[in-house]
Specification:
Layout (H helix, E strand, L loop, with lengths): L2 H11 L5 H23 L4 E2 L2 H28 L2 H23 L2 H21 L5 H9 L1 H8 L5 H26 L4 H20 E2 L3 H25 L18 H17 L2
Parallel strand pairs: 1-2
Length: about 270
């Protein structure tokens, strides 16, 4: 069975929303198995108390704090593909107006360069294009702007520069989000506390036994699940990772803008 077929089967076998749950389940199963072993071997020597429950509450509070932090970036990131598409199409509007007014070959080339930039932008999201190269492409638009000075009014050039600046600022923002982890030390302490708590749940004695199995599996599942969730949510532009656990920000606005840019480019050569 080739790799492509395996990927299709993997995609169709479950909805992406269950990815984290599926990845968490083996850990929980292992913890429950260890709980059975410690129970029948008589190694449950801890007793439940208010201090232990307070640690669980503190860890949940810490996880909630981490989630609130990464959600800010995630909600902001949802707007970014639409902003990028709007900037590119606004620049195309200006270029098309110059072409129509002056029948300029420079404007034709500019429209086609915007289409190529859009294609490079999509490749960049998947880390098939370096940020440095993308910035060079963006900088090269200045050559066209200098040519436009003799073809149009100054305020047209100003609008193009504003859109160029917006693109540069947004690309830098995306690069920062996907290369920078939110509070790495916070992740570390959450992982340490979760490990200690799950170990404590294994050796703690709760009667009757079936209740202890339920609470151990439930609490460990929630804690491990949330850590995976936070880590994956921390990078909403993780398109280049095929093992990404949650749905990423949609690139549909950028992909849709490519079709319109293709139309601009083709129309200018008719």
């Amino acid at each position: 069975m080739n790799t492509r077929v395996q990927k299709l089967i993997k995609i169709k076998s479950h909805h992406p929303r269950w990815n984290i749950a599926i990845k968490t389940t083996p850990f929980v199963a292992t913890i429950v198995l260890l709980k059975f072993l410690t129970h029948y071997l008589g190694y449950e020597f801890l007793s439940i108390n208010s201090f232990f429950t307070a640690i669980i509450s503190a860890n949940i509070f810490l996880i909630g704090f981490l989630i609130s932090g990464v959600l800010v970036d995630y909600k902001e990131s949802e707007k970014i593909p639409g902003d990028l598409a709007a900037c590119l199409e606004s620049m195309a509007d200006e270029g098309f107006i110059i072409y129509k007014n002056k029948n300029s070959t420079v404007a034709q080339d500019f429209l086609c360069q915007l289409l190529e930039f859009n294609q490079s932008l999509v490749q960049w999201f998947y880390k098939k294009e370096r940020t440095e190269n993308l910035m060079k492409r963006l900088f090269n638009f200045n050559v066209f702007f200098s040519e436009f000075e003799n073809l149009t009014q100054a305020n047209f050039i100003v609008r193009l520069k504003q859109e160029q600046n917006s693109l540069r600022r947004t690309i830098n923002r995306i690069h920062t989000i996907r290369e920078t982890s939110f509070l790495g030390a916070g992740y570390a302490i959450a992982e340490i506390i979760t490990f200690i708590l799950t170990f404590g749940l294994i050796i703690i004695k709760i009667d009757p036994f079936y209740e202890s199995v339920f609470f151990v599996s439930f609490v460990s599942f929630i804690l491990i699940y949330m850590i995976y969730f936070i880590k994956d949510l921390d990078n909403p532009f993780n398109y280049y990772n095929e093992d990404s656990l949650v749905e990423q920000i949609s690139l549909k606005p950028v992909l849709d803008s490519r079709k319109r840019l293709e139309l601009y480019c083709k129309t200018s050569f008719l």
